[in-house]
Specification:
316 residues, alpha+beta, Hypothetical Protein Ta1238, Chain: A, Beta-Lactamase, four-stranded antiparallel sheet, two-stranded antiparallel ribbon, 6 strands, 56% helix, elongated
């Protein structure tokens, strides 16, 4: 089937219900901006993981529903989804501190990509305001799109905060420990840094680091961390080393019948398919792995990925 129909060659198109309009009409300005925003978010999603990636996936799915409504399809509850966006904004703001004044974009790649997405969202918001004033679109759409831009701003700053937190620790670990190795001394220090970061987020966690063969190099349990997290963290590290991939990726692949489906049914207590395990790479190969347990799955995943980045930064 050909991709082109030639139906729009005269500069006109139709909505879901068949209403014709010029392609530069307000309704198509909105639909085009939604498509553009989702595409930009796709690039940001490719660069992200953990909580930011989950939030972006949610937004992309939601924007598809919004586009359907604008084009004449199923109803969309703007008021309820505005409240959900506010909950997301609040949850990310609790994990970071923001200084006063204007923030210059470009501190991190992910932050910059999210800032670009935010500018598209603001343009989309302006088209929506025109439509609510002149073309009968529900005014409940205005706060939704305003809050959407706010969320993208907070996500960008959260991305910058995560990257900034890596910098001083990465310099410290490279200054005080030998580079190019993963041994007990490095593993213990890595666990200490991850637990310190977890404390800053209000999480009492357990961190484990193993070698490439899966044998434990270090395991530290913070005061108040769950006893169950000891085995879970150790087994997350083992799983990441054994599969040479993150435990979150292994979990997703196990749900795909064309990939690693059935992995979840293997009777091995060491195999853990929950976010929080990451392989540690050194000199182009797998040197070992890190496992974290103590928070929610996405929090463990963020902490393990941060530890991975910390280890690999000056050891490539």
């Amino acid at each position: 089937m050909a991709i082109y129909t030639k139906n729009g060659d005269d500069g006109r198109s139709s909505t879901i219900k068949g209403y014709p309009a010029n392609k530069d009409a307000n309704i198509f300005q909105i639909l085009g901006a939604i498509d553009e925003l989702s595409a930009n978010l796709g690039v940001a999603k490719f660069e992200s993981r953990g909580a930011p990636a989950d939030a972006i996936r949610l937004l992309q799915a939601e924007l598809s529903e919004v586009a359907g409504f604008v084009a004449g399809g199923a109803a969309f509850d703007f008021a309820a989804q505005t409240s959900n966006l506010e909950l997301l904004i609040d949850s990310f703001e609790k994990k970071m501190s923001r200084g006063p004044g204007f923030t210059m974009s470009g501190e991190t790649r992910l932050g910059a990509l999210l800032d670009v997405s935010r500018t598209v969202a603001r343009r989309l918001e302006r088209s929506v305001v025109t439509s609510t004033k002149n073309f009968g679109l529900t005014k409940a759409a205005n706060p939704y799109f305003n809050r959407l831009s706010d969320l993208l701003y907070i996500l960008a700053r959260y991305a910058d905060t995560l990257a900034a937190a890596v910098e001083p620790a990465a310099r410290l670990i490279s200054d005080t420990l030998p580079s190019g190795v993963l041994n007990m001394q490095v593993a213990v220090r890595l666990c200490q840094d991850v637990l310190e970061r977890a404390r800053g987020q209000g999480i009492q966690a357990v961190c484990a680091v193993c070698g490439v063969e899966g044998n434990l190099l270090a395991l530290l349990r913070d005061d108040g961390a769950f006893i169950a997290s000891v085995d879970i963290a150790k087994n997350k590290a083992w799983t990441a080393a054994a599969l040479q991939m993150s435990t979150a990726d292994a979990m997703k692949l196990s749900e795909d019948k064309d990939k690693l489906y059935g992995l979840q049914y293997i009777n091995d207590e060491r195999l853990v398919l929950l976010a929080g395990g990451e392989p540690l790479r050194l000199n182009g190969g797998i040197a070992g792995a890190i496992g974290v347990s103590g928070g929610m799955a996405w929090q463990d995943g963020d902490l393990a990925f941060w530890g991975k980045e910390l280890f690999e930064k000056d050891r490539k």
